[in-house]
Request: fold
Amino acid sequence: MFMAPFAEELFLRAGLISFADKKKMVATTLLSLILNMLLYADGWVGMVSMALLFLPMTLCYVCTRNKYASLTVHLVYGLCYHMPDFLYAVARMSMR
Reply:
C-alpha cells in the first residue's frame, strides 16, 4: 500500500520522463501513461479508465517537475482506495 506508489512514481515518472526537449518530454510522458495503463488495466475499458486516473498525476509531475507532488497524490488515492478493505480486515481479525 505504501511501497508501490514510491516505486511507480520513481520509475514511471521521475525515472522515465525526460525534460531535455519538448518532443522528448511528450514522448516519454505518453510512454509513462501507456506503461501505467498496462500495469493496472484489465481490458480496453480498464486501460482507458487507468489513463484517465493517472493523467492528473502525470500532469502534476510534468507541470511542477516535483516528484513529491505526484507521489502525494498517488499516496492519497491509494489510501482512499485501499483503506476500507484494510480497516475491514483489521476489524474482522479483532473480532475473532
